[in-house]
Amino acid sequence: MKHKHLITFGGVCIVAWAIGTFLFLYFWPHFVNNIFRKAILDQGFGQSPVPVNMLYVEPQQLFTEPLAAQSASSSPNLMTTGVNHDTLLVVAWLDLSQGLQVLHVPDFSSRYYSVQFTDPFDADFAYVGTRTTGTKAGDYLVTGPGWKGQLVSGMTHIASPSNSVLVIGRILVYSDSDLSTAYDLAKQIRLAPLGQWLVSGF
């Protein structure tokens, strides 16, 4: 065949492209998730690190003046970049190998909010919020893979496919004058180990 070498080369290129595309699609979400993990645990919102299994609410100053707050920070990062002016952020990185976690949300009345749970490969596996669970107060037990325990009465179970979980909460802010009210509600979203919750609640 006159152009056999071209056909062979073309086949190799297609295979290489397919493998490269697969590797990119497989590893890119994990890479992005690791960036979020580093941003939360190392720098938080540019002020201080956020410990594992602890929720942190975006400061009001960052919400009102994101560019000024970022410029003033000695170590601006992902969490202080592109902050929107519609929702307050609540972030956490969970390590469920350290124990089960209980998430508490207050009554949000008619206000929109959501709490998103994402595994290390960037798959959103659960949501708590207006569109999924409603706006009433509630407690949610977050467990790692293979958990077979008994659920506490009144709690809702969130089963994570991984011990590492990215949590991002968003609380709608209606206007500048509404910020303090939204912030107070955001601060009422809480996280605690199950043992602590059983003894003293939040």
What does this structure look like?
- The chain is built from five helices and nine strands.
- The protein is an alpha+beta fold and 202 residues long.
- It has one domain (41-200): Domain of unknown function DUF1254 (Immunoglobulin-like, Sandwich), CATH 2.60.40.1610.
- The protein is globular.
- Mean pLDDT is 78; it is low at 22-28 and 67-82.
CATH class descriptor name: Mainly Beta
Largest sheet, order of strands side by side?
1-2-8-4-5
Which superfamily, in CATH terms, is the homologous superfamily?
Answer: Domain of unknown function DUF1254
What is the name of the CATH architecture?
Sandwich
Question: What ranges have pLDDT less than 50 throughout 5 or more consecutive residues?
Answer: 22-28, 67-82
Instruction: Report, as a whole number of angstroms, the end-to-end distance.
Output: 77 Å
The residue fraction in helices comes out at 25-40%
Anisotropy-based shape:
globular
- The helix tally amounts to 5
Order of helices and strands: HEHHEEEEEEEHEH
Major sheet, described briefly?
A: 5 strands, antiparallel
The fraction of residues in strands falls at: 25-35%
List the helices and strands and how they pair.
Elements: H1 4-43, E1 56-57, H2 60-64, H3 66-72, E2 87-95, E3 101-105, E4 113-118, E5 124-129, E6 138-143, E7 156-159, E8 164-172, H4 179-187, E9 190-193, H5 194-200
Parallel strand pairs: 6-7
Antiparallel strand pairs: 1-2, 2-8, 3-6, 3-9, 4-5, 4-8
Compact overview of the structure:
With 202 residues, the chain is of the alpha+beta class. It has five helices and nine strands, in the order H-E-H-H-E-E-E-E-E-E-E-H-E-H. It is globular.
